Amino acid sequence: MTAAARRIDVHQHVVPPFYRDLLTKAGLTEAGGRALPAWSAESALEAMDLLGTETAFVSVSTPGTAFLDSPAEAADVASRLNDHSAALSAQHPGRFGYFATLPMPDVAASATEAVRALDQLGADGVTLLANNQGVYLGADGQDALWRALDERSAVVFVHPAELPAPAVDGIPPFAADFLLDTTRAAYLLVRNGIVRTYPNIRFILSHAGGFVPYASHRMAISLAGDIGRSPLDTLDDFRSFYFDTALSSSPAALPTLLAFARPGHVLFGSDWPFAPVPAGQYFAQGLETGVPPELLHAVNRANAETLFPRLGGTPAPTPRVQLRQTARRAAARLLFKLVQPGTG
Fold first, then answer.
1. How much is the pTM?
2. CA separation, residue 255 to residues 45, 63, 205, 227, 245 (Å)
């Protein structure tokens, strides 16, 4: 790996000292079963240089602000985190962008902070944990937040949290539970129509979407029986997500992701510093040895440039393939109604 890769990393984390102190005060010394890593801007830049990363979008990992009992304190901490990330981006132009932290599950406060971060601080998007205190994305009552994000064509980085259930001894949450957590959120965002009602929001699912690519057809059939939607339409909704490659560009996972995701919807991710540099190098090597050069450039950089035009790209036009698929979807819906009477 060389700096010539000029990667754009959409999955890198920031752990400011004041935030670490708050977590420690609350008795939290790890996240997802991993010890809280050391972080500094200098160490982040060093890791980026080793991975050939030109620009990284930083975000706050689990637990975000959900460990705080006071909604007012959670809103204040989210605001401080976003001010910190905005300053980091300003101090290192071209090297850092950031996804703003929102004080979920407080929807009203989260909408307010999203507007402040996106409109005033210049955030590149927002981070939302798949579940916050057991409340999943896509649940009822979140429309005020979705409206604010849709009006701004916001990028939403969906990051897993610990499942709202006891951990299993011997299985650290980051190893398996995180994948299910992301999948649960994606399922509800599709099932409850969020991705269709708010089409301007661009959702990035961490870690190749958890189980989404692998289980997409199974979930589509489940939703067909649940809400009567054509499986082809449901698969279109699941494929509308973007996916990052953090800890996922392996010979087993990468082919499934690339076969499922829409062209242009796979982005490079490292998960540093929770994933140490050797892990980042291992999975980056999986990309470099398993992907043709043109596709490698797209995953490393070009797809992110399209999603974030400030980096030098241009917004993607409406894919022509969507026009060609319209008749296919209509025919599939008709067939589905014929074999499932009474469905819509």
1. 0.90
2. 30, 31, 17, 30, 11
